[in-house]
């Protein structure tokens, strides 16, 4: 498969501690969904935040490269990151409320975010915002545009946050536990929306989840992380049916609905 992004020998540390990510190597193809699983503290969030330059101030890239379409994005300057973020890669967070501005109506913040990336008129931006909300199957988009975040349900807020992330049609979406804060039915709906995005727009998706069952549902390949290392990375069927590592077997055994595999 044609690679969209390749992480090579990446090591990261925070402050003066030892490496939190240790020599990470992996790639993601065009139109591919990769699920990253692993216990709490294994470094999943650190890894995806590195790819969009959203690490906290104490974090440091010790070594390694992240190649995206032939360029090492780790060497990008502020301006290059600004262009890259939103246009090429976008992130969806676990809690959409932390991403949405609570004191601005959805329409206003969506239009501002679009116009930060594209030199288009307000009228055009409003149209783009509404079209994208419709793509996320939000009904009554005029009401949504005219609402403050607190006036929407958790599932609606996450749909809005995803709409804002995909408005610029990024080639890669990083999703860090995008459905963990939602009820089971909404979780499945959002998972299906993300898979739809891949089919319609050929978006690649890196999905971080505690739940290997969710990765099994959505992903083409599954990466298992432990203590800041990739311990297994293979096709979904291989990882689930015939895992290499005892640790992966333990993760699988912890998911009741997968016990039959
Ligand atoms: N800002 C920070 N400063 C110092 N250490 C940090 C910081 N953020 C994360 N860490 C440490 O890095 C390690 C990996 O954390 P990370 O958040 O990447 O794990 P995770 O796999 O996403 O866990 P979870 O499943 O709980 O979200 C942990 O040991 C954590 O304590
Ligand atoms: Mg995390």
TrEMBL record:
Membrane topology per record: Peripheral membrane protein
Residues in ABC transporter domain copies: 5-252
Superkingdom of the organism of origin: Bacteria
UniProt name for this protein: Peptide ABC transporter ATP-binding protein
GO cellular component, as recorded: plasma membrane
PROSITE patterns: ABC_TRANSPORTER_1 (PS00211), ABC_TRANSPORTER_2 (PS50893)
Pfam annotation, one family: ABC_tran
Keywords of the record: ATP-binding, Cell membrane, Membrane, Nucleotide-binding, Transport
Keyword Cell membrane annotated: yes
PANTHER family from the UniProt entry: DIPEPTIDE TRANSPORT ATP-BINDING PROTEIN DPPD (PTHR43297:SF2), OLIGOPEPTIDE TRANSPORT ATP-BINDING PROTEIN APPD (PTHR43297)
Primary localization: membrane
Annotated InterPro entries: AAA+_ATPase (IPR003593), ABC_Ni/Peptide_Import (IPR050388), ABC_transporter-like_ATP-bd (IPR003439), ABC_transporter-like_CS (IPR017871), P-loop_NTPase (IPR027417)
CDD domains the record matches: ABC_NikE_OppD_transporters (cd03257)
Similarity comment: family membership: Belongs to the ABC transporter superfamily.
Record keyword ATP-binding present: yes
């Amino acid at each position: 498969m044609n690679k969209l992004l390749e992480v090579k020998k990446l090591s990261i540390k925070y402050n003066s501690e030892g490496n939190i990510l240790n020599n990470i190597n992996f790639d993601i193809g065009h139109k591919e969904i990769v699920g990253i699983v692993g216990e709490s503290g294994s470094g999943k969030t650190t890894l995806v935040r590195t790819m969009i330059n959203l690490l906290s101030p104490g974090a440091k890239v010790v070594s390694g490269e992240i190649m995206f379409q032939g360029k090492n994005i780790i060497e990008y300057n502020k301006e290059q990151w600004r262009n890259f973020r939103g246009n090429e890669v976008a992130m969806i967070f676990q809690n959409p409320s932390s991403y949405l501005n609570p004191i601005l109506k959805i329409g206003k913040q969506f239009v501002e975010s679009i116009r930060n990336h594209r030199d288009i008129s307000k009228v055009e931006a409003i149209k783009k915002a509404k079209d994208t909300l419709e793509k996320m199957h939000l009904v009554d988009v005029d009401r949504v545009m005219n609402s403050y975040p607190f006036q929407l349900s958790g599932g609606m807020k996450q749909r809005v946050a995803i709409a804002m992330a995909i408005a610029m049609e990024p080639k890669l979406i990083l999703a860090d536990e995008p459905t963990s804060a939602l009820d089971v039915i909404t979780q499945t709906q959002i998972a299906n929306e993300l898979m739809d995005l891949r089919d319609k727009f050929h978006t690649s998706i890196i999905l971080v989840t505690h739940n290997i069952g969710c990765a099994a549902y959505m992903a083409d390949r599954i990466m298992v992380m432990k203590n800041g290392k990739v311990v297994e990375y293979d096709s979904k069927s291989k990882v689930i049916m015939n895992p290499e590592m005892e640790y992966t077997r333990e993760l699988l055994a912890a998911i009741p609905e997968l016990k039959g595999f």
